[in-house]
Amino acid sequence: TDKEDLKKEKKVVCGYPISIFFIVVNEFCERFSYYGMRAVLVLYFKYFLQWDDDLATSIYHTFVALCYLTPILGAIVADSWLGKFKTIIYLSIVYAIGQVAMAVSAIHDITDSDRDGTPNNMTFHVVLSMVGLFLIALGTGGIKPCVAAFGGDQFDDHQERQRRTFFSVFYLCINGGSLLSTIITPILRGQTCGIYSQQKCYALAFGVPAALMVVSLVVFIVGSGMYYKAKPEGNIMLSVCKCIGFAIKNRYRHRSKAYPKRKHWMDWAEEKYDRLLIAQIKMVLKVLFLYIPLPMFWTLFDQKGSRWTLQATTMDGNFGQLVIQPDQMQTFNPILILTLVPIMESVVYPLIKKCGFNFTPLKRMTVGMFLAALAFVCAGVVQLQIDKTLPIFPSTSESQLKLLNMGNNQLEVHLPNNFTILCSKHLYCRFVNGLATDLNVSTAAVNFGIIEPLTSSNYSLLKNGKHTFSLKSGSQSCEYTIKFGFGSSYTIFIPSTFTFGPNCQESVTEVEEIKPNSVHMALQIPQYFLITAGEVMFSVTGLEFSYSQAPSNMKAVLQAGWLLTVAVGNFIVLIVAEIAKLPKKWAEFFLFASLLVAVCVIFSIMAYFYTYIDPTEIEAQFSQEKDEEDEDEKDKMRKTEEHVTKRGSVKSNDSDNAFKLSKM
Predict the structure, then answer these.
(1) What is the CATH number of the domain that holds 35?
(2) Interacting residues of 461 by C-beta distance below 8 A, sequence separation 6+
(3) Is residue 653 in some structural domain?
(4) Number of domains in the chain
(5) Among 170, 29, 24, 167, which residue's Cα sits nearest to residue 92?
(6) I need a surface site. Which of 101, 305, 350, 601 has the fewest CB within 10 A?
(7) Which cellular component appears as one GO term in the record (predicted)?
(8) Rama region for 14: left / alpha / beta (φ>0; ψ in -120 to 50; rest)
(9) Could you tell me if 547 and 555 are in contact, meaning their C-beta atoms sit under 8 angstroms apart?
């Protein structure tokens, strides 16, 4: 065939089409780009756009939901219109533009007209970042169902072993890209950069993923001449939807009791569609029915990138010589996946089987959901410990008052009990100049500028650890060193009695407004372990179960259904958080855990009544019945032909006799 001829022309290296190497590199770069951007996204919302935790969480989960809705659109466009190759190219361009837009939106100097380190036109940054996120969601979701399938198209039918190896390497690249990006981009975010003022470098944290996406696109285009490009042949999802739609309409037309009932409502499509297709759709619908409770798992799972990251910002990430950033805690997920998958498959599951327990796929999924609920119980317990160390913040109906005695004598002040001080959760620092002359304060990361007499500087965000400040007034100068902890806030007071010199450190007064975070980030490791173990038992097993229970030509439908559960799960985060409006985060964690336990019970009941099937056997039965029907039809046609032939011979004899009689 033409397809086989095209594939024979392709270059081969070690038994593999050379084209797949471009596809593998493309996937690694794309996954690095996506997960790297996503790792720092919620902190960008909170600290750069200055949104509160709830708004940052809501927009984050809306974005993730869109990323899992658009693959359905991408699959339909690729299979019915453009083909996989063109779909990947066009949407990758959209994707790269979105990443670049995100990087530009994080450059604070663009609208920082007063050069104080804070953008003056926040609307510009918000609009540009939202446009960027929409383009990224369209791009990453649109190419998601195409790249793996396009790679599979490069192999001949006899290269089954090579195809399996390709998919193993392909998914290894996904996890490898995810792992490296969640380590590297938080480090880039932690750097300081800027033209006029040095701030956290979100532009660099988004810029590197943008560059990797451009590299991904270029690599894919370079291999263009080596690919086998299958033509669009129609999307099975459209056929399924049309068949289901016809069955519903036909059933509605015949809703009167005058019409006899049929065994299954899909049987009302028999007037127009093949019985085998209807049987295949019935099998798929049976699996999709089990999908109904599944979004709740993803509701909890995807919060590791939002609520859990925000939780880590109030914790101490000092691991001795190693300092972990809050968004780097997500790295535990890909590390544990690469560790737990082989352990589960080669040790845990065989051991359970030897113990005589029938640990079916649906039972594994139920346990996975329960483990995810336990993870959120752990998160709630950790949050209770964190809350004990946090200062009491004023509500919207309260005011704040901060007093600084800049005189030489002690000052006694009496205040009502309901006055509180508004403090920060992050590491902030400011200087107060009690001298009679201007004071210039700077450090390697931040320049506080000139502070006039008896005034204070703005608060500046600093990295935790030791900082040395240069204090200058006229020709006099000295250095002052202080060590900051995670989450602390300081006011450093330069009194009127301050003297420059080698011992100037002793004259400085430090006011610790918020103590450093004392709850260690290591306490998050158990919840990451439980949620990842739950993911391995739920997600990996769920896809394996779904594929085993559906016909081979319906895999795309199930993949679309599975991705839809992820999207719905992220929307549930918004709904529950908006309805509940719990003031305490620990209560919200316990609420989500309780909801998943309830859903877990419902799913276990549904799983108990589920009957496992063999789609291949059912399809074979239909094929056999069809063959028998075809054989019966042939027999009828044969008999009809024989009957017609016999009648024709009788007519021929009659005409011969009539001819003979006429001659006589």
Answers:
(1) 1.20.1250.20
(2) 47, 199, 200, 426, 427, 428, 446
(3) no
(4) 4
(5) 29
(6) 350
(7) apical plasma membrane
(8) left
(9) yes
| Domain match, 81 and 219 both | yes
Identity at 398, one-letter amino acid code = E
Distance of CA 649 to the CA centre of its chain: 77
In whole angstroms, give the CA distance from residue 279 to residue 273: 11
pLDDT of 266 above 70: yes
* Percent helix, percent strand, percent coil in the chain, to nearest 5: 65, 10, 25
Q: Report which of 603, 38, 129, 82 is spatially closest to residue 333, judged by C-alpha positions.
A: 38
Q: Please choose, from the candidates 457, 465, 391, the residue with its C-alpha nearest in 3D space to the C-alpha of residue 427.
A: 465
User: Which parts of 199-339 are beta strand (E)?
Assistant: 199-200, 318-319, 322-323
Please say whether the dihedral angle defined by the alpha carbons of residues 421, 422, 426 and 427, taken in this order, is positive or negative: negative
Rg (Cα) of the chain, in Å, rounded? 34
- Of 47-51, 63-67, 254-258, 414-418, the range with the lowest mean pLDDT is 414-418
Spatial neighbors of 177 by CB under 8 A, at least 6 apart, are 27, 28, 29, 30, 31, 32, 35
d(CA 221, CA 219): 5
Contact assessment for residue 306 and residue 42, using Cβ atoms and an 8 Å cutoff = yes
Q: What is the Cα–Cα distance from 411 to 148, expressed in whole angstroms?
A: 72
Q: By three-state DSSP, how is residue 484 classified? A: strand
User: What mean pLDDT is reported for the chain?
Assistant: 84
Residue whose C-alpha is closest to residue 365's, from 543, 241, 508: 543
* pLDDT-based confidence at residue 415 (cuts at 50, 70, 90): low
Domain span at 245: 237-255+264-273
> How many CB atoms neighbour CB 221 within 10 A?
15
The reported pLDDT for the residue numbered 640 is 64
In a shared domain, residues 473 and 619: no
What is the per-residue burial (b if ≥16 Cβ within 10 Å, else e) of 415-426? eeeeeeeebbbb
Domain presence at residue 66: yes
Burial of 157 per CB tally in 10 Å (0-12, 13-18, 19+): exposed
**Are the C-beta atoms of 132 and 101 separated by less than 8 Å?**
yes
**Among candidate residues 349, 242, 241, 235, the one with its CA nearest the CA of residue 288:** 241
pTM exceeding 0.90: no
Tell me the pLDDT tens digit for each residue of 509-523: 888 888 888 899 999
Residue whose entry in the numeric block shows the structure tokens 């020709």 = 475
Q: In the prediction, which pLDDT does 373 show?
A: 97
644 in any annotated domain:
no
What angle, 0 to 180 degrees and rounded to 10, lies between the N-to-C axes of helices 555-580 and 275-290? 30
To which residue do tokens 């000295």 refer? 478
99 found inside a domain: yes
Helices and strands (H and E) in the chain: how many:
20, 15
8-state DSSP, 305:
G
What mean pLDDT is predicted for residues 548-558? 77
